[in-house]
Amino acid sequence: MEFQDRCDTIYNLICDENYVPMKAKEIAMLLNIQRVDRNELNKVLTALVNQGMIIRSTGGRYIKSGYKIVGDYERSGNFGFVVSDDKKLKSDIFIPQGKDLGAVTGHKVVAEITGFSTRGNSPEGIITEIIGHKNDPGVDVLALIKAFGVPTDFPGKVINQAAKVAKPVSDADMAGRVDFRDVMMVTIDGEDAKDLDDAVSVSYDGTNYKLGVYIADVANYVQENSALDKEAYKRGTSVYLVDRVIPMLPHTLSNGICSLNAKEDRLAMCCIMTVAPTGDIIDYDICEGVVNVNFRMNYSDVSAILEGDEELAKQYEEVTPMFYHMQTLSEILRNKRRRRGGIDFNISETKFVLDDEGNIVDIKPYFRDVASLIIEDFMLAANETVAEDFFWKESAFLYRVHGVPDADKVRDLKTLVGRFGYVLKGDSAAMHPKEFAKMLDNIKGKEEETLISKITLRTMQQAKYNSENLGHFGLAAKYYCHFTSPIRRYPDLLIHRIIKDHLRGRYDEARHEHFASLMEVIATSTSKTERRAEELEREVDKHKKVQYMHRFLGDEFEGIISSVTSFGMFVELSNGVDGLVHISTLGDDYYTYDENNYELVGDITGKRYVLGQRVNVRLASVNEDLGYIDFELLY
Is 453 strand, coil or helix? Predict the structure, then answer.
């Protein structure tokens, strides 16, 4: 291994999110570096210190230079210290006088470690930002955003560029495009959505359906290598949190000229598909177009119309017949996907109800309604169609791939579902998605449906982006990509650029080589930013659930055992909140964990606590700092 490769390996270790400050000896033990090679390790560490990439404490521990810490500031005499929100960092950060930006006790701050204090082995740093007082509304979420390194404010250059390109659609903009402005179409989104990046139309000729999917032409406004493009790439995706959205693009674009707002001319990338009664797409056209959406609809109203709301149907009588065609076509497409083995997870999402000040007043489970399923089915159809078309064009491309589940996880799942009387057939190492789909069909409407669906989802690999077409296991799709959300996902924007080059005759060998050279890097980067966004969203949800439950200390609830471990069992309430019943609180017996059957068994009584069992609990304690909820079992 070359010296630079050794440097990269050690630096990547120190930058890893799970790394804690270590001495050279500890790093050597972790990496299994033999004693005879320790001198080479010391040379690498010294080189990294000299380059300013890492810092060595007086006690000999190494940490990344410029490490960002988010935490609470506390003043003590003429100096202060920061207590990190990240509990993996055990030491407080010493802040010398004059390095605190004027922070006072109780401020939530961002601190940067600059070295280690001469007073001891504790890290020393400076405060680089005051987020606000920890008790102020919204500061808790903003602190998590900072801790995850998600950028919020756009640089001035990006804002200015967005303002310059966000001009009304002109005749010159529409030249050479297919004019769809006389086609009846709608957007269907959540009631609070402002970045409307897809519109749909459906017509029926008595035999086949014509499905139009019209996607905001973001690539027309965000040019490759521009300041806008670089910022979008850095962010990778919009982030949707409980009380705010952190957009990938400035609002001038995401909520303005790129958003397919009703009654306004907009540029679009279009996928027009002819769908047979079998669900097969027998013809399609991918083109640049101009659209003018007739109605801005929301999921609730469209679902209500399809469920028989006569008043709403009359209000939208121009498009109500199309909604019924949409529902029929959606079912056709979904049934085709089921026949080939596509897996449909019917899992509730958590819906937070906020008051006018952004405080959570309720948490409710939320299931996809019929209108949500319609849009989902139409977007899947467009994504598959585009991916297959460009696969056969042998174009450089970015696919959305989903691998086969790990065999050990599948074997565990077989055992778990067997406890409920269900069978998952097939070889654990080469399971066809159809077997998962059959099993999930069998549990529909059963009390254990949500639990088994969640466990099955945890068995699956994470989907990611790849320059190779490796297929999508969960959808049982040979070809799949992300084409339908360029306002909020960078991969979709990249794909639009590739499509445009093909449509305009610019895709030559040089462009092929250009895009091919970018794919692996972009695939890796956008997969990482997607994971970062998902982790932040989960962390904020968890934090808000804990915060909300604090008011119910001592109250009793009914829940279901969602997980059993050697140290206790997790109980999930109907609103999606879960907490731990620690094994030490089970005072009626001494319980042993049976790892083969995922249950706790009383040594004397033989009493069993098993996955899926309904239990009554009392909320015993809540720790907002650590994000813990503890329940006590009611016998």
Answer: helix
Contacts of 619 (CB under 8 A, 6+ apart): 549, 552, 553, 554, 555, 556, 557, 579, 629, 630, 631
Are 292 and 266 contacting, i.e. CB atoms less than 8 angstroms apart? Answer: yes
Residues recorded for the chain = 635
Taking the C-alpha atoms of residue 534 and residue 287, their distance in angstroms, rounded to an integer, is 32
Q: Please name which of 210, 190, 208, 209 lies closest in space to residue 198, comparing C-alpha atoms.
A: 190
User: pLDDT averaged over consecutive 10-residue blocks of the chain (635 residues)?
Assistant: 78 81 86 86 86 72 81 92 82 90 95 72 85 91 92 96 96 96 97 93 97 98 96 96 94 96 98 98 98 97 97 96 98 96 85 83 88 97 98 97 94 88 88 92 87 91 96 97 98 98 96 96 94 94 93 96 94 94 94 89 94 94 89 92
DSSP string, 185-253: -EEEE-TT-----EEEEEEE-SS-EEEEEEEE-GGGTS-TTSHHHHHHHHH-B-EE-SS-EE-SS-HII
DSSP for 344-411, written as a single string: ----PEEEEEE-TTS-EEEEEEE---HHHHHHHHHHHHHHHHHHHHHHHTT----EEEBPPPPHHHHH
Q: Torsion angle of alpha carbons 512, 516, 518, 524, nearest 10°?
A: 150
What's the alpha-carbon Rg for the chain, to the nearest Å?
Answer: 27
Q: Of 127, 71, 123, 72, which Cα lies nearest the Cα of 99?
A: 127
Q: Which residue has the tokens 């709608």?
A: 186
According to the model, what pLDDT value does residue 52 have? 66
Question: Which DSSP symbol is given to 133?
Answer: E
pLDDT at position 231 is 97
Least Cα distance to 67 among 26, 24, 123 occurs for: 123
Q: What is the pLDDT of residue 465?
A: 97
Enter the pTM of the model.
Answer: 0.88
64: alpha, beta or left, given left = phi > 0 and alpha = psi -120 to 50?
beta
CB atoms within 10 A of CB 382: 27
The total of other beta-carbon atoms located within 10 Å of residue 534's CB is 13
